[in-house]
Task: structure prediction
Amino acid sequence: MKTQVVIVGGGPAGTGLAISLQKHGIESIILEKESFPRLHVGESMTGECGASVRALGLEEEMGKYKYPIKYGTMVYGTDGRNSFYVPVMGRKKDTNELFAQPTWQVRRSDFDKMLLDVCVDKGIKTIKGTALEVLKNEQGVPCGVTYKTPEGEMGEIRADMVADASGQHTFLSNKGVTGKRMMGKYAKQLAIYSHFKNVKRPEVGEDPNLKTDDTIIFYQKRNHWAWMIPINDELVSIGVVTPAEYFRSSREDMKTFLKREMMSLNPELAKRLEGAEMVEDAHSCANYSYQIPDWAGPGFICLGDAHRFVDPIFSLGLHFTLVECRKAADAIADYMNGKCADMANPFEEHMKFCELGMDNAQVLLDVFWAYPFAFSLYIRDAKYRDGFIDLFAGRCYVTDPPACIPALRRLQAEVSNDEAVAA
Ligand SMILES: Cc1cc2nc3c(=O)[nH]c(=O)nc-3n(C[C@H](O)[C@H](O)[C@H](O)COP(=O)(O)OP(=O)(O)OC[C@H]3O[C@@H](n4cnc5c(N)ncnc54)[C@H](O)[C@@H]3O)c2cc1C
Result:
């Protein structure tokens, strides 16, 4: 079998890329090992993620699923104190003014299947199978993959490019095509989560900002927190994130651990749980913070989680993934048209762009975790407020970032200087 781009993985990165490539007239085949719908973590969208979904032409399709509407994110501090709320807002193209731009919460099993179905409807070929090995031409450039179907049949797809959209499986890194996976700052964390019904959502008037289907984050202490994300009329996703060692030392099974933590982590969460019923097994996700060097080059490119994931607390993952799909499709089109033929790495500019967005987000996350009190002061400060709203919405891909980023960087530098002097 032959195509222009073989895409390993049919999650949002894989399907988003296939749809974006089709707009350039580039043919692709998606190889996905799981049967959809399949459970997946990652349900809350940023404002710009919602805009990416609209840009893919999927707004009408989204309407059919009646996904909950998110107007903002509430973060409760330890014991429910020091909370802050960040509304979901867009920027007007002409005046650059902020405006309310609600987004969606999604049940990922439905959402990911919807995207894959859209691809099938658009005539994009999808194959159920696991990518096994990377094929290379005489110059050592990737030119396809081999795969195995659930029935045990072996196959081969030859292509001009291999796109790795395998998420945390990091297929091309495992095969030695990219650099080796490097652990991120939050690599020793473990998320345990499930879906619940009968959870008390915020009521009108309960808080001047909080809306019924907003994302709520419950902070307990460094690296110890929980999320509450409504995913449809009935169900709410709740997850608890702690150091993996803390879970191991509890000697509890995941379900017991999750239920106990939910009740004890933060009173703002506990008060919503009377009568709540767990309708899914408890699932877990570990070692999710990493970065892969040299993740694109002649004949190959990685997207979304297949090359970097920092930390889930501010729900930026899907947004990064969908931005990268659009940009990668442009870069692949240039590569195929021979525009960057004289460059050692035809995807250098694309990689810089993607890393820029994630580096800006990394500052936000690092300061939140290292200096939560200072973070909560900065985010309430009128000088920085709009910049935080931009970053939470996902407007991170800027060389001239909002004033809060240099301020947070200065804070990091001052504290490390003080620590050096003290040492
Ligand atoms: C605890 C946690 C909470 C999160 N919460 C949020 C959130 O609220 N909002 C948000 O935006 N993001 C969140 N994220 C991040 C988000 O889930 C990811 O960024 C997003 O799913 C990335 O999409 P993807 O397509 O790159 O990977 P995936 O969605 O993981 O898709 C990869 C696909 O590749 C397939 N695959 C893998 N290997 C192979 C192979 N060899 N052959 C064929 N198929 C293969 C897999 O079956 C899978 O379907 C969270 C992440 C974590 C860890």
Q: What stands out?
A: DSSP finds 13 helices and 23 strands in the chain. The mean pLDDT is 96. Residues 29 and 282 are 33 Å apart (CA to CA). The radius of gyration is 22 Å.
